[in-house]
Amino acid sequence: MIVTATPTWRPFHDEPLFTDDLLHGVDDIPEASRAAVITYLEQVAHVRRAPLHTTTAFNALHFGFDPQTRGYQAAVLDPELFVRLDTGTVALPVLPVGTFVRIERGQQSLWAEVVARFGAHDETHSDGWVPAHLSGAPATLDAMGCRPERVILDPEAFGAPLTPRERVELRRLRQRGVLLDDRGHLTGKVCYPNPKVADLDDTALYAHHLLTAGKPLLVGGPLGGLLIDPHDDDTLAMALQTALDTIDKLLDQTPHLRRWGAYATPAERYERRRDRPGLLGGADLDDVTHAATRATLEPRFTGVWPLLAGWVDSAKVTDPEQVDVDPLELTAAAEAVAHVNLAIADVATSAVDGLLVDGVHLRIDDRWQAAGVWLAQPEPVQTDVRGVDPLRPLALGYHESLPSSSFASDTPPDRDLSDRQPDDGTAGQPDGADTDAAADGKGRDTGEDTPTGGNQVRQETRPDDADPDAADIDLPDGSDDDAVEDAIVVEHLHDSLVVYTVALRPVHLDSDALPLPDHVDDLLADGTLVIELHHDGDNLDDNERIQQVERSDGELSGFAWPLSFYPGIKVTVAVARGARRLSAATTLLTKPLLHGAAFRWAADVKILAAALGIDLPDVGPQTPEQTVPRAANPNVPARHQGIDPLRKLIVTALRRHGAAGSFGARRLTGPQLFTALFGPDLSNPALMWQVIYTCDRLVDAGKLTCEPNQGRPDKPGSGGPDTFVWWPDDAARRQAQAHSDQQRRVALRGKVHEHWVPPGTRALPGGYQASDEARSAYAEFVRKVRGPKADTRLPTGYTFVRGHTRGSEPGSSWLSLT
């Protein structure tokens, strides 16, 4: 890459900054090229009035944003390729950040770039209050496939300031309230082709746009010129993703920009706002931050946009003379949102042991809805929640709205010490649904809303007086008969699936039996059943892992329990209607119980202490909990909820049956996991999708990863089911990611012109015109990338330079007018 000698890089004047260096990964970029790109991105960020997003940074490098003229060159880009918006539009098309649009009103046209976008649900309140079920919820579309959004445009993206005609047109659009609202934003219903597309983040969604509707723009730019075959969809998608990843990492390395998610804003401008008086200046920033972080008796979810909009609207009413310009109009809204989120983030990251000085735990819960939803939760807060990075969204609000969530509570009173820190692939992570990020839904549709949930029902069955063997157990002093009752906890109850946990008593181990709750009898298939036992921490023989059992008087008989089992050990069992295969698992602890090193699995300590004839340790009250199931929130589709009690069984099945990969990984698709859990004979599509949604929640919680089988880039999901991956630890995952990045670079080798200056237009020096050779080469290039009907005339004031190796002569491109 030839680095310009001028202090500001100018597209169409200097050698391109978008070269093959950006397709090699951030660590492989030569230092001079890295410095040039970083300097340029900082200059663009300071010139533009909205924060840079990863996608708009890509646009600046790829399509040529000129910091001197403060805009792109529309004549070079061809506005006919922009997304068209008419004033009669009822529903908006999908407009990810980075999309170029042209607003048409009669003979008038206004060009702009999308610079920010977020959810705009109407259930939010002007004081910032957001209903819990919206925070982190998966994409929920109405019957027409739409959802409400606020899309912020930059009408100055093609040159600032606007011309008088453009200012008049923008004012008319705002005043009429058609398409644009009074703040100049696109607001309303945005319709998606399917839920999977709606769940993509802006970077992935923009990549999807460039590979489909925006493909002529993409292949007509430097990226297409760098590829040997720009019409190879797989190579184009891989190169685009590599470039976006590299640019995102370069934004992280810019010393004078602050990041909020995918956005980057100049640190100097943020500090200037802090020092500035007036509306949304430093004092207001502190007040708004306090409103989002103040202590309350219950968890409070606060949305940044409704809080800001309510603040400004209130000021307009109470002190209109002080509000000469709305600080949330046009692109100023995007910067205000970024600054407020940064201010709250600074408070959240200053917490000691996860808590602010007033005992409030503060964290971001959703970056998308309402421009950011912050959760302020009073003590007590689960220790493992407090230990998670407060800037990592966990979608706790969404999960609080689901049935049987223990969102704001500590350990339930009837849970014994053996339930601490299970090593089932969830150790070190928040328990239950509390901190799993919301399932993104992946666009999968079961065709029905399948009722699910983690509803727990404690069933006390077969007391001691019904079992003569129970008399053989000597109870410690102070114990009562309840200490040896069978405690079966039904964790999920549905017509097609029951998941329950039982603590085995000595009589069950001696008689090789597994108790069944009352609800299971009708679900079991007739004849001999197969049960697969997952018992991590013990190397089971094949005849112990897979066993054939029979149904017998409220229990399954014929087990050969492993020798490492002991009285009180807890077994979780999943039974699907009509399935001949059952899945069962114990829970390995990170530390053994107090009774000795052999007691390494979760257990009911009452039963264990009774069997050992020792005093029961003081573990607090053991009052049985009768959990009353709550109705699912009607605004949360049941098909997206997943089945929390299946999480442990999914992880254990994936570890055992997953296809072995590098760095200890195990991989299975959703349908393969369904077969591993319930056998190949069961056909239940609705239940299979619930297994897949549960895997999605594990992915969002960071316990699994998901490898989409992309198929065709223009058709998400066309490559078949996603693959879910279990990793032995985070180090293995990081190594695999680095290896994957390397493989992507290797895959591009031989498909990218090395040391290449891509073809493109260049600004003509004064007194020169394009040569006939340049005009002919441009026409040939345009027809190739945009089709035979494209306008092949060179834009006035520009010439065309063929692609060439750096340092070589590209041929004559201009002639002197004299």
In short:
The chain is α+β, with helices and mostly antiparallel strands.
Kindly describe this structure.
It is a single chain. The strands form eight sheets. Strands 12-13-14-19-20-16-17-18-15 form a nine-stranded mixed sheet. A five-stranded mixed sheet has the order 2-3-4-5-6. Strands 21-22-24-23 form a four-stranded antiparallel sheet. The two termini are 33 Å apart. Helix content is 29%, strand content 18%. Helix 2 packs across helix 9 (233-253). Strand 10 and strand 11 form a beta hairpin. It is of the alpha+beta class and 818 residues long.
Q: How helix-rich are the residues, as a percent range?
A: 25-40%
How are the strands ordered across the major sheet?
12-13-14-19-20-16-17-18-15
Low-confidence runs of at least 5 consecutive residues: 1-6, 404-458, 460-485, 619-638
What fraction strand?
A: 15-25%
Gyration radius (Cα, Å) is 31 Å
Keywords, separated by commas or semicolons:
818 residues; 5-stranded mixed beta sheet; 30 strands
How are the SSEs ordered, and which strands pair?
Elements: H1 31-47, E1 52-53, H2 54-64, H3 74-77, E2 83-86, E3 100-105, E4 108-119, E5 146-154, H4 164-176, E6 186-191, H5 195-198, H6 202-211, H7 215-219, H8 222-226, H9 233-253, E7 257-260, E8 263-266, H10 267-275, H11 282-293, E9 300-303, H12 304-318, H13 332-349, E10 360-366, E11 373-378, H14 383-386, H15 396-400, E12 457-461, E13 486-493, E14 497-503, H16 506-511, E15 513-515, E16 529-534, H17 542-545, E17 546-551, E18 555-557, E19 570-576, E20 581-585, H18 605-612, H19 647-657, E21 659-660, E22 666-669, H20 670-678, H21 685-700, E23 705-707, E24 723-726, H22 730-748, E25 756-757, E26 760-763, E27 768-770, H23 772-786, E28 798-801, E29 804-805, E30 814-816
Parallel strand pairs: 2-3, 16-20
Antiparallel strand pairs: 1-8, 3-4, 4-5, 5-6, 7-8, 9-11, 10-11, 12-13, 13-14, 14-19, 15-18, 16-17, 17-18, 19-20, 21-22, 22-24, 23-24, 25-29, 26-28, 27-30
